[in-house]
Amino acid sequence: MDDRDERIEIWKRIAAIPEPLGYDTEIMFGSYDVPDLTMLRLRPWKIRLTVAGDASARRIWEERGTF
Hints:
By secondary structure, the chain is of the alpha+beta class. The protein has one domain. Helix content is 27%, strand content 22%. The protein is built from 2 helices and 2 strands, in the order ααββ. The protein has helices at residues 4-16, 25-29; strands at 46-51, 54-62. Strand 1 and strand 2 (54-62) form a beta hairpin. The longest helix is centred in the first third of the chain and has 13 residues, at 4-16. The radius of gyration is 17 Å and the shape is elongated. The model has no long low-confidence stretch (mean pLDDT 82).
């Protein structure tokens, strides 16, 4: 991700998530513009939810138009 404003927004979102999922991004990386820092955008195209032992409770979401 090369867009500066988008990197800053992601940086702030990660920092705002409470522990244990979130973390202090500055302690870990220093700044959003560190040359060796790579940010990836993960875009789910399919999500499958299941309840252990209950096949009837399975739900699948797929993004339309991906395939």
